[in-house]
Amino acid sequence: MGDISLEELQLATRNHGMPLEAMRYDVTPVGLHYLLVHYDIPVVDDAWRLEVDGNVASPASVSLADLKRLPAHEVVSTMECAGNGRAELAPRVISQPWLQEAIGTGRWRGVRLRDVLDAAQPGEGAVEVLFTGLDRGVEGGDEQPFRRSLPLDLACTDDVLLAYELNGEPLPPQHGRPLRLLVPGWYGMTNVKWLARITVIDAPFAGYQQAKGYRLRRTEDEEGIPLDRMRPRALMVPPGVPVFMARERTVRAGTVELEGRAWSGHGPIEAVDVSTDGGVSWSPARVEPPALGRWAWQRWTFAWEATPGSYVLACRARDAEREQPLEPEWNLGGYANNAVQRVIVTVT
Ligand SMILES: Nc1nc2c(c(=O)[nH]1)N[C@H]1C(S)=C(S)[C@@H](COP(=O)(O)O)O[C@H]1N2
Ligand SMILES: [Mo]
Q1: Ligand 1 pocket, 81 CB below 6 A?
Q2: Whose CA is nearest to atom 5 of ligand 1?
Q3: In the predicted model, what is the mean pLDDT of residues 249-275?
Q4: What digits encode the pLDDT tens for the residues 4-55?
Q5: Could you read off the pLDDT of 187-237 as tens digits, one per residue?
Q6: Are 196 and 51 in contact (CB under 8 A)?
Q7: Is 274 buried (19+), middle (13-18) or exposed (0-12) by CB count in 10 A?
Q8: What are the CA-CA distances from residue 218 to residues 221, 323, 339 (Å)?
Q9: Whose C-alpha lies nearest to ligand 1, atom 23?
C-alpha cells in the first residue's frame, strides 16, 4: 500500500471517523458522528443571516429566528462520506484516508427547504439551487467557498431540510452551525454546512465540487459520473476485544451475537448476509425493519456458533437493485468504495 504521508495524517487527525462500536446506538451521539471539513471551521456570530437570491421573485435575507417561525420538520438520517473506503483502494488515492468509519446517524431538525424556496418563488427557467457555505479554501488551484448545487425538483422534496439542530441541540460548530443542508440518502458532500446563501440558478452549476470533485472517473480527462445516492453497505460492530495496535479481535468460543447496521440511499435493505470464512460462503442475518424512518440505517444480528480457530468475518448488504461487491473498484477520487468489510477474529 505504501506509507501514509504527513499530509494524509494531517487530514486524518482533523477529520475523524465514527468508531464502529458506536453502531450500538440507534442515533449517533454528537461527538461520535464522523466529521469532514475541507477547509477551516468558521466561527459564526449572532449577526448571521441566510441570503436567498438568484432567479426568484422575492429575494430574502432571513435570520435564524425567522427560520424557526416556519414549521419544523425532523428526519433521522444516516450520512456517509463519498470517500468512505478510500484507503482500501490500490493504488492508494491521496486524500482523506478513510477506512470504513466515515458514517453516522443524526436526528436532524430544521425547516423544509421547499418552504423557504416557495416563499422566494423561483422564476421561469430555474433548474438548480446552489448552496454556498461560509468556509473558503483553495482547491484545483482556485480560492472558493465550499459550494454545491441540487436539481430544483429534488430540492423541493419532503425530507430535504435546512437543519439547525442535531440530536435535540443547536448544530455544533463542526457540523455546520448555525444552518446546514440535509439531503437524506445522498453522500455526505451534498449536505453543505455553514450555509450563507441559497441561489436559484438557470443552468447547472459547474464549480469545482461538482464538475471536478465527487465524480466517478478513471482519468483526469474523463467527464465522469456525478455521485449522488449512497450505495448499500453493511458494517458490523467488531466482536470481542481488540489487540491494542492491530485491532484484530479475540472472542470466547460459544454463541457470539454479531450485530451491525446496514443502509442504502436508494431504499430499504432487503438482506444482509454474513460470512465466517472471508466471503466464500454466506448465511442470512436477521435484518430489523427500519425503526427510525426510511432514511436511517437498519440493525442486523447474526448468532455465530464460534469454535476455536482463526476466522475472517464479513458482512454484505443488498437493496432492491444492488449488492455490495467483494472487492473494491478503483476510481480517481477514491469514491463510493462499498466493498464488504472483513474482520479478523481469533476464537479461544
Ligand atoms: N461548507 C461545507 N460543507 C460540507 C463540507 C465542507 O467541507 N464545507 N464537507 C462535506 C463533506 S465532504 C461531508 S462528507 C459532510 C460531512 O458532514 P459532517 O462533518 O457533519 O459529518 O459535509 C459536507 N458539507
Ligand atoms: Mo465527504
Answers
A1: yes
A2: 37
A3: 98
A4: 899 999 999 999 999 999 999 999 999 999 999 999 999 999 999 999 999 9
A5: 999 999 999 999 999 999 999 999 999 999 999 999 999 999 999 999 999
A6: yes
A7: buried
A8: 9, 22, 18
A9: 189
In the reported structure, the alpha carbon of residue 96 is separated from the centroid of ligand 2 by a whole-number distance in angstroms of: 9
d(CA 205, CA 220): 19
| Cα 46 to averaged position of ligand 1 atoms, centre (Å) | 22
Q: Whose CA is nearest to atom 10 of ligand 1?
A: 189
3-state secondary structure of 154: helix
CA distance 160 to 183: 5
- Grid coordinates standing for 222? 474523463
Ligand nearest to the CA of 36: 1
Whose alpha carbon is nearest atom 18 of ligand 1?
A: 35
Cα–Cα dist 184/296, whole Å: 9
Residue 1 has pLDDT above 70, yes or no: no
| 33 in contact with ligand 1, CB cutoff 6 A | yes
The answer to whether the beta carbons of residues 154 and 229 sit under 8 Å apart is: no
Distance CA 109, CA 259 (A): 28
Residue range 269-280: mean pLDDT, rounded: 97
Q: Is the CB of 83 under 6 A from ligand 1?
A: no
Is it the case that residue 247 has pLDDT exceeding 80?
A: yes
Sequence-distant (≥ 6) Cβ neighbours of residue 14 within 8 angstroms? 35, 37
From the alpha carbon of 181, which atom of ligand 1 is closest?
Answer: 24
Atom of ligand 1 nearest to the CA of 35: 19
Q: Is 34 in the pocket of ligand 1 (CB under 6 A)?
A: yes
Question: Which residues, by Cβ under 5 Å, contact ligand 2, an ion?
Answer: 36, 81, 188-189
Q: How far apart are the first and last CA of the chain?
A: 31
